[in-house]
Amino acid sequence: MGNDPGDSNKKEPSKLVAANGAKANTKPTKTTTSPKDDAPKPDQKDVQVAGDEAVSQAVDIKTNRDLNLALEKERRCSSKWKHQLQIVKEELLKKIEEEERGNSDVNKSEKEAKETQEWKEKYNQTNAKLLEIQASRAILSAEVSKLQHALHREVGDHIPISKVLEEGGDWKGRSQQICILKDKIADLKSKLQKQSANVVEHNHNDNFDSAQKREYEQISAKFLACREDLKNTRQKLSAILARRNVLENELKVAKEKMSLLVGKSDNDDRLIAALRLELEAQRQGQGPTLYGQKVGGPLSLDLVQRQHRLAASFQELKRHCYQQELQIQAQAELIEYLRAIASSQHEEEVMKDNSYDVVNGTSELSMTSKSSLLSQFDPKELLELQ
């Protein structure tokens, strides 16, 4: 950068001020006398010199002031130029930085272009490899589907492939299964040839035993029906016996109540008779005495009312006794009816047991059929039925 013009302006006024100061300092040295020291009056030359010096000092002061003003003006201009210079410097630095940044951006763009080119090449290589892998995968998937189809045809659809692939499993191939089945067929043929004669004889025996089998089935059905009827009859009989016991207990209680009512009615009859006698005695003036005096009037009325109450209670007891007798009679008839039903059912059971014994005696079953018949039922039930 060049020299600042403001600096030169600053230097020049300072030189002028120094020169003026030197003149001012040198001029008073010529007139060092004062009026106190010099008693005689000064000369005209001295006065003229002093006036010249004063004029010169005034001129110097004026010039100094002008120079100071010029200096201040120059300072302002220099500060303004400094500010503008600073702005220019900043703009220049910004331009330099922008140029450097532009150069760096260019370098960066070139670098990015190179990297982009490299990545494009890598992408193309990877894409080519991917296409190759996809082609090989398609070929392998086609081969796998063919092998699976062949394996399904060999193994069968009912057996999963995972079971075939397991090690140590009990799976057998189709050829092994065919060999095993062939051996089984040969064994079965030999057994069939050996058992052909036995089968013919067995069929003949089956035809011979068909009639006995039908008879056995009929007898077993009748036996089951009879056993069910017997079970139902026993249940009914047990219910009837329980009902009879309940009714007998009720009849016993009713008889006890009846005996109590009869005894009470007898007591009431005797009491009524005594009251009648007492009333008759009162009517004839022969009533009872109280403290040696006969009782009459209101006592007779009380006795009449008591007699009426006793008569009403007696009638109520009679009606209650009549109802109890009717209930006892109905319960007795019901008990007799239940006893008749129980006896008839017992006779029916005896007749069924006898008929079953007759059927067992007349049937001509074989020993095998009888044993099979008895094996179907509980021996305890058979003993109970007998």
UniProtKB/TrEMBL annotation:
Q: Which domain of life is it from?
A: Eukaryota
Q: Where is this region: Disordered?
A: 1-57, 99-118
Bias regions of kind Low complexity — which residues? Answer: 18-34
InterPro entries, alphabetized? CCDC13
Keywords, sorted A to Z: Coiled coil
Carries keyword Coiled coil? yes
Q: Which residues form a coiled coil?
A: 230-264
Biased composition regions of type Basic and acidic residues, renumbered to the chain: 35-46
Q: What is this protein called?
A: Uncharacterized protein
Organism equals: Ceratopteris richardii (Triangle waterfern)
